[in-house]
Design brief:
mainly alpha; 4-stranded antiparallel β-sheet; Serine Threonine Protein Phosphatase 5, Tetratricopeptide repeat; 5% strand; 26 helices; Rossmann fold
């Protein structure tokens, strides 16, 4: 019976999405829990659920439980409203286990009615919006997702696909299994079965482009990523550019010899995501290919500064300094790398920078695409066409301003984003999320004092391990090591298993100068 718990969550996501509601994906929830070191299957208190919902800027949280004797099933569910906080009435139903799909449809419809007493759809109208699925196919699909071995996972997922050939979720999941096994020849046909109407369509197209890069098919890869970039520009109100898409598009164009276009795309990716070192690193590779050693040095130094714990960034910086004749600087960086990494210090590079093949193996292809927040915007127009409920935030609330601000950030329009976050704070001066988002803009603009102030204001409104870790990074950039260590220790006290905080603390302890700062 273990599959039912996972199945009820997946059914809830699909049912609400089919009815036009904007729903965070399973992966989005898991990613947020992972930030706090919480296992995916953890039983959460209502306070913890509320905290996660606030971090995600969700309006509502659905939770519940089930009981079954193998013949019948009873499901209890309710909604926790995030702002203002309220626990809505319990919704409960029971039926034969074979009627699980119909039972869940009725339960979800009643949940929406608990959120909005004037919900405009009756049960028959709501049911027509749902994809009719057989219980056997759905069970095989969930069992496939839960399986720990690839052979078992593929067997169950393929059985689900056989039972429901037009259902795209099994096809996408099968493609993902092959993708993770680096069997792109097998993954591509399954990704091709995911239609444009599917919530996984963007991810499947992105993965297909990655497969073409892995198979060294740059023409196909460029077509896929170029079409995806154009589609996002047309279908997202913010005209979003995703740095992962731009990075891979640049690699495809570089392999085809179109270096100017590759440089443009990579430069855009680097500007959008100021913390990621892969983008300046790939720019450095392109500069090396053209024997532009000073330019390469600039890019590799930026990559190293963005991610000081990556020895490969150091190795390429040292290499370009040597090639530029800056022996003393190279020796200094080599010594610093030895101090930072000890026995794991990067070995000297031996490569022919004019050989495309020699540099290609170092290209950093982005293989994952995080659409957690962007998916809400992609689904927004559909939601408005399907139904409008009183649960939707109005256009001048703090939450609405924050969401528009995030859209502007993704589009690279920082001035407009900053104004939206200020608008949010005008509505709600203590809004922790608005302060946090404003801090990120200040950090991108190297206004570190302003960024630290906004993060402190965010923490005053709501304590958060993620925000304390970000504040620690700001202090690190300011060379305030003692303050940085104090913040990351507080983060780990809140979330002892938070991986990002653990890694930062390890880095701080290794890099802290004698006597502190």
């Amino acid at each position: 019976m273990d599959w039912i718990g996972e199945g009820l969550e997946e059914l809830t996501i699909q049912s609400l999405s089919n009815a036009g509601q904007q729903v965070y994906s399973h992966a989005g929830r898991i990613n947020e829990m992972d930030r706090y070191g919480l296992p995916a299957s953890a039983k959460l208190s209502r306070a913890t659920m509320l905290h996660i919902g606030q971090e995600l800027d969700a309006d509502f949280i659905v939770f519940g439980e089930y009981n079954s004797d193998g013949q019948t099933i009873s499901v209890t569910a309710r909604v926790l409203r995030v702002n203002p906080v309220a626990l809505l009435p319990v919704v409960e139903d029971h039926d034969a286990l074979t009627s699980l799909m119909d039972l869940h449809t009725k339960l979800t419809w009643r949940l929406l009615g608990s959120i909005d007493k004037a919900y405009p759809l009756n049960l028959a109208e709501f049911s027509k919006l749902q994809r009719p699925l057989g219980l056997a196919a759905f069970e095989q699909y969930i069992r496939g997702l839960l399986a720990s071995e690839d052979d078992v996972r593929l067997r169950d997922l393929k059985e689900a696909a056989r039972l429901e050939p037009s259902w795209p979720e099994p096809a996408y999941a099968i493609g993902e299994v092959y993708f993770q096994k680096d069997d792109c020849a097998s993954a591509l046909p399954w990704y091709g079965k995911v239609p444009a109407s599917s919530p996984q369509h963007v991810e499947s197209v992105f993965a297909s482009g990655v497969c073409h890069l892995r198979l060294n098919q740059p023409d196909e890869a460029e077509r896929v990523f170029s079409d995806l970039e154009e589609s996002l520009q047309q279908n997202v109100s913010s005209g979003a550019d995703l740095p992962e898409v731009l990075n891979n598009l640049a690699i495809a164009r570089a392999r085809r010899g179109d270096l100017p276009s590759a440089l443009t795309a990579l430069g855009r990716a680097r500007d959008i995501d100021p913390d990621e070192d892969d983008y300046p690193f790939n720019l450095g590779l392109l500069a090396l290919q053209q024997k532009q050693y000073p330019t390469a040095e600039t890019h590799f130094r930026e990559a190293k500064d963005r991610e000081p714990d990556n020895p490969q960034d150091w190795a390429f910086l040292i290499y370009t300094l040597d090639k530029s004749g800056k022996k003393a600087e190279a020796a200094g960086e080599r010594e610093a790398a030895a101090d930072a990494f000890g026995d794991k210090a990067p070995a000297p590079l031996k490569l022919d920078p004019t050989s495309t093949d020699a540099l290609a193996k170092y290209e950093r292809i982005k293989s994952e695409l995080d659409l957690t927040s962007l998916r809400l915007e992609l689904e927004g127009p559909q939601s408005q066409q399907t139904t409008t409920t009183s649960a939707s935030p109005s256009s001048n609330t703090a939450v609405a301003y924050i969401r528009r601000g995030r859209q502007q950030v993704r589009a690279g329009r920082l001035d407009a984003a900053e104004q939206e976050f200020h608008n949010a704070l005008a509505k709600d001066p203590n809004n922790a999320t608005a302060h946090r988002e404003l801090a990120e803009i200040y950090r991108r603009r190297d206004k570190l004092d302003d960024a630290a102030r906004e993060l402190q204001l965010s923490l005053a409104g709501r304590d958060s391990a993620a925000v304390r870790t970000t504040l620690a990074r700001v202090y690190l950039e300011q060379k305030k090591y003692d303050l940085a260590i104090a913040e990351v220790q507080k983060a780990l006290k809140l979330a002892p298993n938070y991986g990002e905080a653990k890694e930062l603390l390890d880095h701080l302890e290794k890099s802290k100068p004698p006597g502190g700062a």
